[in-house]
Design a protein that fits this description.
Strand content: 15-25%
Order of helices and strands: EHEHEHEHEEH
CATH architecture of the largest domain: Alpha-Beta Complex
CATH class of the largest domain: Alpha Beta
Helix content: 25-40%
Number of strands: 6
Shape: globular
Structural class: alpha/beta
Number of domains: 2
Strand order of the largest sheet: 3-2-1-4
Distance between the termini: 36 Å
Protein backbone atom coordinates (compact mmCIF):
# COMPACT_ATOMS: atom_id res chain seq x y z
CA UNK A 1 0.00 0.00 0.00
CA UNK A 2 1.46 3.36 -1.06
CA UNK A 3 1.00 6.51 1.01
CA UNK A 4 1.70 9.80 -0.75
CA UNK A 5 2.80 12.68 1.46
CA UNK A 6 1.58 15.73 -0.46
CA UNK A 7 3.39 18.90 0.54
CA UNK A 8 2.85 22.31 -1.04
CA UNK A 9 5.64 24.72 -0.12
CA UNK A 10 6.90 28.24 -0.65
CA UNK A 11 10.10 29.58 0.93
CA UNK A 12 9.99 27.28 3.95
CA UNK A 13 13.16 25.30 3.38
CA UNK A 14 14.08 24.91 7.06
CA UNK A 15 10.59 23.81 8.11
CA UNK A 16 10.30 21.49 5.12
CA UNK A 17 13.56 19.82 6.08
CA UNK A 18 12.22 19.31 9.63
CA UNK A 19 9.14 17.65 8.12
CA UNK A 20 11.29 15.38 5.94
CA UNK A 21 13.38 14.46 9.01
CA UNK A 22 10.22 13.63 10.96
CA UNK A 23 9.13 11.28 8.16
CA UNK A 24 12.58 9.74 7.83
CA UNK A 25 12.75 9.05 11.59
CA UNK A 26 9.58 6.94 11.68
CA UNK A 27 10.01 3.36 12.89
CA UNK A 28 8.06 0.08 12.93
CA UNK A 29 5.87 0.49 9.89
CA UNK A 30 5.47 -1.55 6.74
CA UNK A 31 4.03 0.98 4.32
CA UNK A 32 5.49 2.22 1.08
CA UNK A 33 5.73 5.99 1.02
CA UNK A 34 6.52 8.69 -1.48
CA UNK A 35 7.00 12.41 -0.92
CA UNK A 36 5.24 14.74 -3.40
CA UNK A 37 6.40 18.35 -3.15
CA UNK A 38 5.01 21.20 -5.20
CA UNK A 39 7.31 24.20 -4.80
CA UNK A 40 5.64 27.52 -5.53
CA UNK A 41 8.77 29.15 -7.08
CA UNK A 42 10.74 29.35 -3.82
CA UNK A 43 13.90 31.45 -3.74
CA UNK A 44 15.37 30.12 -0.47
CA UNK A 45 17.32 27.09 -1.74
CA UNK A 46 14.49 24.57 -1.38
CA UNK A 47 15.39 22.82 -4.64
CA UNK A 48 19.02 22.31 -3.61
CA UNK A 49 17.95 20.91 -0.23
CA UNK A 50 15.60 18.47 -1.99
CA UNK A 51 18.46 17.31 -4.24
CA UNK A 52 20.46 16.36 -1.13
CA UNK A 53 17.49 14.41 0.24
CA UNK A 54 16.91 12.62 -3.07
CA UNK A 55 20.49 11.36 -3.09
CA UNK A 56 20.76 10.32 0.56
CA UNK A 57 17.47 8.87 1.76
CA UNK A 58 15.41 5.74 1.14
CA UNK A 59 12.07 7.08 -0.04
CA UNK A 60 11.22 8.54 -3.43
CA UNK A 61 10.74 12.29 -3.66
CA UNK A 62 8.66 13.66 -6.51
CA UNK A 63 9.51 17.34 -6.73
CA UNK A 64 8.12 19.96 -9.06
CA UNK A 65 9.19 23.59 -8.92
CA UNK A 66 6.60 25.87 -10.47
CA UNK A 67 8.07 28.51 -12.78
CA UNK A 68 5.77 31.12 -11.21
CA UNK A 69 3.94 31.34 -7.91
CA UNK A 70 0.52 29.73 -8.49
CA UNK A 71 -0.95 30.93 -5.21
CA UNK A 72 -1.63 28.66 -2.24
CA UNK A 73 -4.80 26.95 -3.49
CA UNK A 74 -3.43 25.91 -6.88
CA UNK A 75 -0.15 24.82 -5.31
CA UNK A 76 -2.08 22.71 -2.82
CA UNK A 77 -3.86 20.96 -5.71
CA UNK A 78 -0.58 20.65 -7.62
CA UNK A 79 0.99 18.70 -4.75
CA UNK A 80 -1.88 16.20 -4.81
CA UNK A 81 -1.65 15.87 -8.60
CA UNK A 82 1.89 14.49 -8.19
CA UNK A 83 0.68 11.58 -6.04
CA UNK A 84 0.58 7.94 -7.12
CA UNK A 85 -0.50 6.49 -3.77
CA UNK A 86 -3.55 4.63 -2.58
CA UNK A 87 -3.91 7.40 0.02
CA UNK A 88 -2.75 11.02 0.19
CA UNK A 89 -1.69 12.58 3.45
CA UNK A 90 -1.59 16.34 3.01
CA UNK A 91 0.90 18.36 5.04
CA UNK A 92 1.77 22.01 5.30
CA UNK A 93 5.48 22.47 4.74
CA UNK A 94 5.76 23.75 8.32
CA UNK A 95 4.19 20.61 9.83
CA UNK A 96 5.98 17.63 11.37
CA UNK A 97 5.03 13.99 11.77
CA UNK A 98 4.76 12.81 15.38
CA UNK A 99 6.70 9.77 16.55
CA UNK A 100 5.14 6.43 15.53
CA UNK A 101 2.57 8.12 13.27
CA UNK A 102 3.15 5.70 10.39
CA UNK A 103 2.88 2.66 12.67
CA UNK A 104 -0.40 4.03 14.03
CA UNK A 105 -1.62 4.81 10.51
CA UNK A 106 -0.78 1.28 9.43
CA UNK A 107 -2.87 -0.15 12.29
CA UNK A 108 -5.86 1.91 11.18
CA UNK A 109 -5.44 1.00 7.51
CA UNK A 110 -5.07 -2.69 8.35
CA UNK A 111 -8.46 -2.54 10.11
CA UNK A 112 -10.08 -1.82 6.70
CA UNK A 113 -12.60 0.61 8.19
CA UNK A 114 -14.88 2.52 5.85
CA UNK A 115 -13.86 5.92 7.21
CA UNK A 116 -11.01 7.34 9.26
CA UNK A 117 -11.31 10.51 11.34
CA UNK A 118 -8.09 12.25 12.22
CA UNK A 119 -7.23 15.21 14.37
CA UNK A 120 -4.04 17.13 14.92
CA UNK A 121 -1.91 18.36 17.75
CA UNK A 122 -1.37 22.10 17.60
CA UNK A 123 2.18 23.27 18.23
CA UNK A 124 4.12 26.47 17.95
CA UNK A 125 7.03 26.95 15.55
CA UNK A 126 9.25 25.29 18.15
CA UNK A 127 7.04 22.15 17.92
CA UNK A 128 6.03 22.51 21.58
CA UNK A 129 2.38 21.56 22.05
CA UNK A 130 -0.09 24.38 22.60
CA UNK A 131 -2.12 23.23 25.59
CA UNK A 132 -5.20 25.39 25.00
CA UNK A 133 -5.59 25.69 21.22
CA UNK A 134 -7.99 28.30 19.93
CA UNK A 135 -10.43 25.68 18.70
CA UNK A 136 -11.29 22.08 19.53
CA UNK A 137 -12.48 19.61 16.91
CA UNK A 138 -14.63 16.53 17.28
CA UNK A 139 -15.51 17.03 20.91
CA UNK A 140 -17.61 14.42 22.67
CA UNK A 141 -20.41 16.79 23.65
CA UNK A 142 -23.47 17.57 21.51
CA UNK A 143 -21.74 19.91 19.05
CA UNK A 144 -19.63 18.56 16.20
CA UNK A 145 -17.38 21.61 16.09
CA UNK A 146 -16.74 23.67 19.18
CA UNK A 147 -14.92 26.95 18.69
CA UNK A 148 -13.29 28.82 21.53
CA UNK A 149 -12.77 31.84 19.30
CA UNK A 150 -15.72 33.75 17.79
CA UNK A 151 -13.73 34.74 14.71
CA UNK A 152 -13.10 31.05 13.94
CA UNK A 153 -16.82 30.38 14.32
CA UNK A 154 -17.61 33.10 11.75
CA UNK A 155 -14.99 31.85 9.29
CA UNK A 156 -15.70 28.12 9.48
CA UNK A 157 -19.46 28.00 10.02
Amino acid sequence: MLISFCIPTYNRKEYLEELLNSINNQEKFNLDIEICISDNASTDGTEEMIDVWRNNYNFPIIYRRNSVNLGPDRNFLASVSLANGDYCWIFGSDDALAKDSLAILQTYLDSQADIYLCDRKETGCDLVEIRNPHRSWLRTDDELYVFNNNLDREIYL
